[in-house]
Write a structure and sequence with these properties.
Largest sheet: 7 strands, mixed
Shape: globular
CATH superfamily of the largest domain: Type I PLP-dependent aspartate aminotransferase-like (Major domain)
Number of strands: 14
Strand order of the largest sheet: 4-10-9-8-7-5-6
Strand content: 5-15%
Structural class: alpha/beta
Number of helices: 15
CATH topology of the largest domain: Aspartate Aminotransferase, domain 2
Radius of gyration: 23 Å
């Protein structure tokens, strides 16, 4: 049984939460492992049971642990601490990680970024090393607006673009500024772990909407709004994570009608939209949608600058918090992305990543007898209860369905997410051959 390290002072609520987080980082507490019962831990530490209870509650609010009748309190798979711990432990030689969507900086992406750096006017100026100024912000806004119009077929005024450090940060920021604890948010049946973690941090309630092979179903969205009186939807219409679905233009238009009719504030995460054909959902409900996107999946994950694009009145409220938005963005990152957009290096990077994804998806279709969409960076595949663990035993990391589940009743495990985005063709081929053998063994 895990116990926090004894100190000269009695443990308080904050020190217990810190001890839990450190134990997860160091893997002294593993994913799914139960924490000691509250009364036992209180006795062992010689503290009031209320102190332990409050510490467990706060750890749950941070997304570190969860509770379930009959299981007690246990470590969650989707917590930042657990994910970081997994990344560190899986750097061992021979592990092929198909669980994450991280852009690899291959020779072509490196060459494109070097070309961007060479063309970056700001690189030889003092501004490159200073806090970002209004002129660079305005240039970034204009460059993003122009790119959205030429590449995503959606029009925004430059002043309707808000620079933000990252898409994940944007979700946290919007939740903090626009919602109060207990507010209801509608999401897809399975959604990104970052969305689940952000909702827990701010005490928000997630309700799932039924999806089909395209994604959200308009009639189901209308129904769940009636049932929950929800005021906010967060959705990933293009290459949805984890399910890989992409809404058709017709479906987006139908959803937009529901959104407008119900006056539903909608966060559209479009980080994979550049790899899909339809225009963003925001095109059909511009006054109700906050379009959140960036370039970490096609050009550079190291340059922390993304954006919110919207015609919604809440933009004014978001823009007033410059300490939590613009001041967190470095001039070097913003100028790198500006240069890539203005010189259309972004298009080169997208085309390269798209070409790679098509080649990789054809490879797994052939080896694993699948029929996945060629342009998708990830796929949602059915499996048996033991398949993901068997793959891990063979050195292949897959993303469990439980990482994307909003409620426990969506389990037990029936699917896994497989990402082709972050590994080489050589590693993908090796992993696909192993996965095909494991599946054939189970089927026989």
């Amino acid at each position: 049984m895990w116990l926090p390290q004894q100190t000269d002072k009695k443990h308080g609520v904050n020190s217990l939460v810190t001890a839990i987080e450190k134990a997860i980082f160091s893997q002294h507490l593993k994913i799914g492992e139960r924490l000691p019962p509250q009364r036992i831990l209180a006795y062992k530490l010689n503290v009031n049971p209320t102190t332990v209870s409050r510490a467990y509650q706060r750890a749950a609010q941070k997304g570190l642990v969860g509770g379930q009748i009959g299981r007690g309190t246990y470590v969650l798979a989707q917590s930042n601490a657990a994910l970081f711990s997994q990344v560190l432990s899986e750097r061992e030689e021979g592990v092929i990680d198909l669980s994450i969507n991280k852009l690899p900086c291959d020779d072509t992406i490196l060459a494109i970024n070097k070309a961007v750096e060479h063309a970056n006017y700001y690189r030889d100026t003092a501004q490159y090393y200073e806090y970002i100024d209004q002129a660079l912000i305005a240039r970034y806004q204009l460059a993003v607006a122009q790119w959205l119009e030429r590449s995503r077929d959606i029009h925004f005024q430059s002043e309707q673009i808000l620079a933000i450090p990252s898409c994940q940060y944007a979700i946290h920021f919007i939740f903090k500024q626009c919602l109060t604890p207990g507010a209801v948010i509608i999401v897809e049946q399975f959604t990104a772990p970052g969305i689940i973690a952000a909702a827990k941090e701010y005490g928000l309630r997630l309700f799932t909407c039924k999806c089909d092979d395209q994604g959200l179903i308009p009639e189901s969205l209308d129904s769940i709004i009636t049932q929950t009186n929800a005021k906010l939807l967060i959705t990933i219409p293009s290459n949805q994570s984890p399910m890989g679905t992409t809404l058709s233009t017709q479906r987006r238009q139908a959803l937009a009608k529901v959104i407008v009719k119900r006056d539903l504030l909608t966060i559209e995460e479009d980080i994979y939209g550049m790899f899909a054909t339809p225009s963003p959902l925001a095109k059909y409900a511009p006054q109700h949608t906050l379009l959140v996107s960036g370039f970490s999946k096609c050009l550079s994950g190291g340059h922390k600058v993304s954006f919110i694009a919207t015609a919604h009145p809440v933009l004014k409220k978001l823009q007033n918090n410059i300490i939590e938005t613009l001041w967190l963005i470095s001039s070097s990152s913003a100028s790198h992305i500006v240069t890539a957009l203005e010189h259309q290096f972004i298009e080169q990077a997208i085309a390269h990543v798209n070409k790679n994804n098509i080649r990789k998806n054809r490879l797994i279709n052939s080896i694993m007898s699948l029929s996945v969409t060629h342009t998708n960076p990830h796929h949602w595949l059915p499996c048996s209860h033991s398949f993901v663990q068997q793959a891990a035993d063979h050195g292949i990391k897959l993303a469990h369905q439980e990482n994307f589940a909003v409620t426990q009743d969506q389990l037990p495990l029936q699917h896994y997410r497989l990402s082709v985005h972050s590994v080489s063709e050589e590693h993908l081929k090796s992993a696909a051959m192993t996965l095909a053998k494991l599946r054939n063994t189970q089927d026989s």
